[in-house]
Write the structure tokens for this entry.
Amino acid sequence: MESGERLPPEVAEQTEVPRAATTGTLFGVGMGPGEPDYLTMRAMRVLERAPVLVHFCKKGRRGNARTIADAVLAAEPGREYPLVYPYTTELHPEHPDYVAALAAFYDDASARLADHLGAGRDVAILSEGDPFFYGSFMHLWRRLKDRFPVEVVPGVTGMSGCWTRAGTPITWGDDVLTVLPATLPHAALVERLRATDAAVLMKLGRHLPKVRAALAEAGVLERAVYVERGTMAGERVIALKDKPDDVAPYFSMVLLPGEGRRP
Ligand SMILES: C[S@@+](CC[C@H](N)C(=O)[O-])C[C@H]1O[C@@H](n2cnc3c(N)ncnc32)[C@H](O)[C@@H]1O
């Protein structure tokens, strides 16, 4: 047979080489900041099609990424399961017991997901905001990315949702934006705040008194805006200087809007 000539269909069928079994794809699905309307069309498509869905949650809690999906996804016990953190805030993240327990948790979770992926089933990990922005998804991605195809679906970040709902642009002109975990020591926060034009302080929780003191020492407390549960039920936006207490839930942040060039 000349090269380029096609085999008749019935012969082609008989001579087809059996293909190696294909693996599933690991999807990190950005679920946005809370309001389900901020889900992307691509996220929706993956949620509708993936045969296995997982989400992270604290013991005895539902998991925020799954709650965001409630508006678009009925509970399907056969198709989805939670990955329950052994610890969240009970121990310091650098405590050896915390490090060991979390490493074992991520190893075990990635082994379970590898079983699905190896059997050809796509797995979607529901991730709050954007999966590649302080996301737990990244710990599974790191363990699985060299063995299986991966697709990350970007999401609207929590900070983007928060400054949108606060009605405050975050950067103008040449403003430099610094994202700071509130878990940093007081002195580091002050130093970074003094060196930036705009800032987002995440992971507030019990660190709010330290953040308030650091903003005051850096001379920028007046401009700071506190946002709790941005775009979610129970959203609250208030100038930090007017917030009478230092109580802050996990889903809260402080925004320091820039004041750069405004022709
Ligand atoms: C581990 S980080 C995850 C960030 C997420 N991947 C994202 O793209 O926004 C969790 C922190 O994000 C902040 N956060 C995320 N979504 C938020 C929201 N809707 N409202 C307030 N804070 C939020 C809080 O500071 C929280 O402690």
Notes: Residues 194 and 219 are 8 Å apart (CA to CA). The domain at 159-256 is CATH 3.30.950.10 (Methyltransferase, Cobalt-precorrin-4 Transmethylase; Domain 2). Helices lie at 9-15, 41-49, 64-69, 96-118, 137-144, 158-165, 186-194, 208-217. The radius of gyration is 23 Å.
